[in-house]
Structures are given as structure tokens and as C-alpha cells.
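Weekly modeling sync, notes
Attendees: AB, CL, MP (scribe)

Item 1: holo prediction request
CL wants a bound-state model with adenosine-5'-diphosphate before deciding which constructs to order. AB pointed out that an apo prediction alone won't tell us much about the pocket. Agreed to run with the ligand included and paste results into these notes for async review.

Input as submitted:
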Amino acid sequence: MPADLDALRADLERLDGRGYGGYKRLRDGRWAWEHGELAVVRVQADPFAPPSRLQVRVPPEVAGLPDDLLASRPRRRGVADALVRATAAALGTGRDAPFSVDTGGQQVLARSAIHVAPDGAVTLRLAVALPADGRRIRGRHAADLLTRQLPAAVAQGLRWTTADHERVRAGAEVCEDAAALRGQLGDLGLVAFVADGAVLPRRSGVDDRPLTGSGVVPFAAPTSLARTVTLPNAGAVTGMGVPEGVTVVVGGGYHGKSTLLRALERGVYDHVPGDGRERCVTRPDAVAIRAEDGRRVARVDVSRFVGALPTGASTADFSSEDASGSTSQAAATVEALEAGADALLIDEDTAATNLMVRDVRMQRLVAAEAEPLTPFTDLARSLHRDRGVSTVLVAGGSGDAFDVADTVIRLHAFTASEVTGDAHAIAAAVPGREGGARAFPPVPARVPDPASVPVRHKGKPAVTPRGAGALRVGPATVDLAAVNQLVDPSLTAGVGQALRRLVEDGLLDGSATLAEALAALAQALGEEPAEALAARWAGDVAAPRHHEVAAALNRLRTLEVRAPGAQRAERPS
Ligand code: ADP
Ligand code: MG
């Protein structure tokens, strides 16, 4: 039986003025009050250590959430998101606030900070910096935080009676619609859908909220690409369907091409009501691809892109500690396919030019034998026809892709039109590069060696997120800054916990291929992946896609892989 909250208050007041270590006695404690139960999961060792971790459970009858809002997983995710934001607001945020709650940004992700169960029980996980005066416990202040401020915020934020009903309902409906739309894309033969009226531009490169003001041009579908879908809450919605196959986005500089592609990249996630991209949705297995020179590559078959290298190194089994722009992008493409991508999103701004295009003049000057690279455009058709992988390519600088494009979308002053016919006519009249389509054979499987993924060090977990763009794994830092779809630090933390699962639970066992291990991971994490990932780590996590887990594994500087069936390398003992 948990003690009641009055006992905690008395305890904390008694600790007032004692040494900071006195807080340790709170660990694993549980205290109940009329609205729920508080548990202290972890206690910081000193005032400057990472904050202590708390968990609050509110039973279904106290939360009082209406049944219809609990009826599906996307609904519960949207409800949870609205509740956690309201609770964080009630707790007060800001730099020096004692509490911190992982509310996330514009995406609605399954995150450990909040969980709404099918029966309506709510779990909140948060951090608190336990207060000190120097190294002495400020017990009365701590009592105020834990036994007055926190319960007040819970009463305000996590109960239907005090909730902003419209906002919670909107959260549920927006998520449900986005998930339903994403689920329809395959049947509709679409890679993505962008609703009319969507607001794609953001306030700035560091502010993901929607751009506002009279200069914003809401999205409008070109008539020829307009599709109408039916969503559970919004009903009939019209927008642009991006068809399967090869889609090229053209237009002058500063006309909104990258903004559209960015929205497609993020369309694998749901967005909060009011974001502008609520109905801008992309297939779950769409992966952003870019050049990333300097990254590591572990035995990837890039031979379809890269022929004989001047060094004589085999490109069918290519490794590098310092890949070039083109080889890094070739590797990223092959790795994405290995992990099951069915759409690739590529922006000229971040692609390796020599992997994307090679014009007639350059072909004349540099003979084919001297150029090891096969441009992506020669492979794009086969990628779709033979491998079932679509491409959306932003190309403002070269028309080489016109020959292979199924759809060409032009952006002019942020307004889309379809110019496929014109592009094909130009391709017929004006010769492009010489040479042509090449086949994209199946991607060979690789078997990662779990011993090369140091998720534990000296018997302890050794995986620590470093913001959204890096992850510390054992002695090394994995640079994830170029993994565009890791859009939230908690996703990166989730990737770290997923790597632990892969190794600690034996999903990578030295004989499972990477794809098999990722499938086993999805199975192991089940229907509530954020809850599963939170089980062994007190910090905040959000559930990542397996594509981002693979991206981290592939960038790990220690990773060793072999071909299936090949002998495991002997390790010196
Ligand atoms: P491109 O890739 O074609 O060069 P960008 O997508 O980078 O262009 O967009 C250029 C600028 O225009 C960015 O600052 C972006 O925020 C803004 N922008 C993009 N789309 C819109 C829009 N629909 N309405 C208003 N501004 C937009
Ligand atoms: Mg651009």
C-alpha cells in the first residue's frame, strides 16, 4: 500500500536542512492522494546532477476521459498529447522551472512522458530538480513542489472535468485522421498526400511552428493531381496526391521546393492541431536520403551506384571510415532499402551532385570508363519497377530526370502545377545525358555482430542521447545530424533504447540479418513501443521508426557486419 501524500510532506519537511543525500530515501517510494499515485523513480545524487524522475498514475475514474476518445490508438495518442501539454503548462515551464515535462514540438509522437491506456488510466512521467540551498535539502520547498504544485497541475491537466475539451478532442481527431490517411495511401497508389489549405512553411530554421502572416501561400493541389479522400472526422478532404513511381519537383530557387519536401519527410509523423501539416501525410516507410560525407559505412554493396574505384576497392562490399558525398548517399540509399524503405525523398540541396546528374559535356570530357558513378536517374526506374521503391526528387538545376519521371510537379511562387507533359516533350526534343536505364538488383542482407554494438560498458547501460542529432554508444558518439527524420531529441533517446533492446535481448545474435532483427524489435516492442522502451530507462523517450534505428546502427563507428552464412570472424579472447 502506498503511503498518503501527507506522509510525504511530513517526511520532506523533516529533511529540511539535511545533507542532499537525504533525498535518497524517497527512491522507490509511492504516495497516494485523491487523484492518483506519485512514485519517485530515480533520485539525483546532487543538486547539479540530471534531475530526479517521477511517475504519476491517475486512475480511469479520476481522469474521466469519455469512451469515444479512447476508442483507438491514434485517438489515445492525440488525447495524451493534449493532456501532457496542458499539464506542462499548469506546472509552469521556462528555464529555471523545477519541473520538466517532455511535451515535444509540432509532431505528436508516442512518448514515455504520457500514456493513456485503453481503459482511460493516465500515466505521466516527468523530471524534477529537487531543491537545495548549497548542498542542503530545502525540504519545505520540496514538499511544496511534490505535494502541492504537482498534484494541482495533475488535477488541472489530466482530468476531463478541467480539461479544454475542444483541444483534447481536436488532438484525438487530428491524429485519427492522419493515421487513417496514412493507412489509405498504399491503396490509393500514393506516396504522400498534401491537403488543400495546408501551411507548409515554418517560422524559421529553428522554429518549427507554422509561418504566419499575409505572405503565406496555403497549399493548393494542381487539378490533374487532385484527389479526394474520406477521413473519419474531417470527412471529404481534397489535396494533392503524390503518385507512386518517380516524381520530380522542379521550380526556380526560392519557390518552395525544399519546403514541400521537408513536409513530406515529416509526414511520416502526425502533427498537432494548428500546425498546418495535419493532413500532409507520407507513407510510413518513406526515408529521406542525403549526402553525408565523413560518415562511416560498414560493408554496404554500393556497386549499383559506384563501379571500379581508383583504389581498386570492391564496391560490392564497400566500407569507409570517411565516405565521400556520393558514396555516403549511395550507401544511405542501399541501407534504406535494406531496412524496408518504399519511398526515397531526395532534395538537390543536400544531395551529392555527381550522384544525381552528369551532363553531356562532362560525359564527353570524362570517358565512361573513368567515371565510376551511375547517376541516380539511371536507376530510379528500376528502383520502382523492380524493387517497388518510389522516389520524390527535388531538382531545380537539371532536367536529366525528365526522361524517367512519371510525374513532374512545378512550384512557382509556392503554387504547384503539374508539368509532366511539358517535361516529357522537352526530354524528347532536347537530348539529355547519353546512356540509360540500369537495373537495381536486390540489396544483399547483412548480419550485424552484436559484440560490435557497445550498448553496455562495465556491465552498465552505456547509451546516452546528446540532443536530437547525436547518440553516445559506449565509447563513441554516433553523429545523427544528417538523419533528417530524427526530429525530436526523445526520438533519438528512443533509438538509443532500441539499440539496447537489439543487443540485450539477443535480437541481434550474430545470425539474424539487420532486417530480421528490426522486425523482431517491432514484435518485441509491441503495440505500445514508447512504454516498452521506457521500461528500462527513466529518461524521456519517443517511439522511433525502425528506419531511424537502422540509421543509427549503420553510422556506429564500431559496427561490424558479415554476409549471412559467412563465418563469424574470430575474436581474440
Ligand atoms: P526552394 O527549395 O525552392 O529554393 P524553399 O522551399 O527553401 O525554396 O523556400 C524558400 C522560402 O520560401 C523559405 O523561406 C520558405 O519558408 C518560404 N516558403 C516556402 N513555401 C511557402 C509558402 N507556401 N508560403 C510562403 N512562404 C513559403
Ligand atoms: Mg531548396
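Recorded for review: The pocket of magnesium ion (ligand 2) is lined by residues 257-258, 349 (CB under 6 Å).
Action items: CL to compare against the apo run; MP to circulate these notes.
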